[in-house]
Prior knowledge:
Helix content is 12%, strand content 42%. It contains three helices and ten strands; from the N terminus they run E-E-E-E-E-H-E-E-E-E-E-H-H. The strands form two sheets. The protein has a five-stranded mixed sheet. A five-stranded mixed sheet has the order 3-6-7-5-4.
Amino acid sequence: MPDLLNKPPKQVLLFSVQDIYACIDLLCVNKILSLPQLNIMPGCSNYLAGLMNLSGKSIPVIDLALRLGAHRKTPYSTDTPILLCSHGAQQIGIIVDEIIGLNSFTDNLLQENTQFSTNDSPFLGTLNLNSQLYLLMDIQKIINTQFADNESTIHRVQKTHD
């Protein structure tokens, strides 16, 4: 039986989005990219910034600030970072405002809250790292984000870009 008390710490990437401090499991992050040209998808949610072409593959890019219900205070620039993340075979680009750095934590530092257990919440819990509270992102919920209100539009986008 494995010793649960001696589990290695998990690595997270720390970043900010507007006035929100968040982090994501480093194992989910494939690359950090500068903002490429995005192809706009008409009829989709406002937080879908567009599709980027990465080596011939169309990858949806979301603006995390808009996905979280915040307002974008500054326009995008070519220096705007995008986290290229994956869960299984699925990939998504996530626009953030600033990369803060790397940190590690053990499971006992993760503070779970009933607000995070809803289907709508893109968070797993909170972490207090370096005297700052960070929201730990749930990459599976972010990747499973629906980009349109109309179910047929969602299926068309998925079939076109699979």
